[in-house]
Every structure is written in C-alpha cells, then in structure tokens.
Amino acid sequence: MIIISTLPNREDAKKIARTLVEKRLVACAWVLGEIQSFYIWKDQLQEDEETVLVLKVPKEKASEAINELRNLHPYEVPEIIAVEADYVLPEYLKWAKEVCEK
C-alpha cells in the first residue's frame, strides 16, 4: 500500500517518517520537496507550503501505520490517503514484509 500525507514542514515529515520506519510500521518513507497547497479551511481560502510524505507499507500493516501516522500528525484534520498498489515487484514486496514483520 501507498500512504500519502502532507505536513507543515520538512522537519515534521522527517520525524514522522523516521518514527514509522523505526517502529517497522512502514518499510520505506519518502519525504518529498515542498509544494504549494490551496484549499478551503473554515470557509477561508488557504495557501500554504507543505511537505509531502509517502509511505510504503504491506497491506497487513496499513491500518496500524495509518493509526500511528494520525497520532503523530500535527494537523487537526490531516490528509491521509491510502491506495493499494496495482503491482509491486515480488522481491520488493518480500523485502517490505520482512522489514515490517520484525
């Protein structure tokens, strides 16, 4: 599974990525560059710089990873989107499962 979230800054994203990998809830985490987000919050147009966090996790660990991400996330209502991958190289999936089983 791929879990995508946005964070207010790179340091928050790195902290959450490191924690989830150290706890073996995700096999790998990407902290991508800053993006410009536009959205409505409490009836006001918002424009913010955010950092994208991408997590790669075996399906069996997804719920636990999402729960921990939610607990660590600083936003009141965080963006947490999970999608199932259509294809994963079998050797990569094997590695990811081994990492998250320990």
TrEMBL record:
<dbReference type="GO" id="GO:0010038">
    <property type="term" value="P:response to metal ion"/>
</dbReference>
<dbReference type="InterPro" id="IPR015867">
    <property type="entry name" value="N-reg_PII/ATP_PRibTrfase_C"/>
</dbReference>
<comment type="similarity">
    <text>Belongs to the CutA family.</text>
</comment>
<dbReference type="GO" id="GO:0005507">
    <property type="term" value="F:copper ion binding"/>
</dbReference>
<protein>
    <submittedName>
        <fullName>Dihydroorotate dehydrogenase</fullName>
    </submittedName>
</protein>
<dbReference type="Pfam" id="PF03091">
    <property type="entry name" value="CutA1"/>
</dbReference>
<dbReference type="InterPro" id="IPR011322">
    <property type="entry name" value="N-reg_PII-like_a/b"/>
</dbReference>
<dbReference type="InterPro" id="IPR004323">
    <property type="entry name" value="Ion_tolerance_CutA"/>
</dbReference>
